[in-house]
Write a structure and sequence with these properties.
Helix content is 40%, strand content 17%. It is α/β, with parallel strands linked by helices. An 8-stranded parallel beta barrel has the order 1-2-3-4-5-6-7-8, surrounded by 6 helices. Helix 1 packs parallel to helix 2.
């Protein structure tokens, strides 16, 4: 499946009522995000599925793939375009067997060795970080830009930087051949998610143009 990870939006519904959350997702899509991941850690399976259906209805309007974090059952239930597995989730090789070849499979990698294994096991893209400390996880393990650079050179699949990134701090990624950036708070918590997405994409494009 062809997909674009240039501006990868990872959601966090925690601070919002459902209607406001969905409004923010729509605004982010209007602002040009190219991939959406629905990440829910504290919902029941039914709640996760119900929200995933609502989000998928929006992403399909914009022809943007929806990735479900961790939960392959939810991905299959709503026929989302893919799933993302972290180091503590289902192993990449097993996830690929379950979802088949027609779905997008993302994985988290913090080392070159982990990146190579994820690629060999069937991952289509990697999220590498955290580049900066984040507010979305209690415990953040930072990944150096040198490691990020080494990973981009070690695997032929898409590699995205993640972790505390915003329009003002992308300069640290200059010279690294990433395929895109992942953003949570920079878009999700913005006063205007659409404007934030536009600004982040502009900053990314300018950073890449300076390579």
């Amino acid at each position: 499946m062809t997909f674009d990870t240039t501006l990868y939006f990872i959601t966090d519904s925690t601070p919002y009522e459902t209607d406001e959350f969905l409004r923010r997702v729509r605004l982010a899509l209007e602002g040009g995000v190219t991939l959406v991941q629905l990440r829910e850690k504290n919902r029941t399976t039914k709640e996760y599925i119900d929200l995933a259906i609502a989000v998928h209805n929006i992403t399909k309007e914009f022809k943007v793939p929806l990735i479900i974090d961790d939960r392959i059952d939810v991905m299959l239930a709503v026929d989302a375009e893919g799933v993302h597995v972290g180091a503590e989730d289902m192993p990449v090789e097993l996830a690929r067997k379950v979802i088949g070849e027609g779905k997008i499979l993302g994985a988290t990698a913090k080392t070159v060795e982990a990146a190579k294994k994820a690629f060999n096991d069937g991952a289509d893209y990697l999220g590498v970080g955290a580049i900066y400390p984040t507010t979305t996880k209690v415990k953040t393990v930072l990944t150096s830009t040198a490691t990020l650079d080494a990973i981009t050179k070690a695997v032929p699949i898409k590699v995205n930087a993640i972790g505390g990134l915003n329009s003002a701090n992308l300069g640290v990624l200059k010279g690294i051949d990433i395929d895109g950036i992942c953003a949570v708070s920079a878009i999700m918590k913005a006063d205007d998610p659409k404007a934030a997405a536009i600004e982040l994409r502009k900053a990314y494009d300018e950073m890449r143009a300076m390579q």
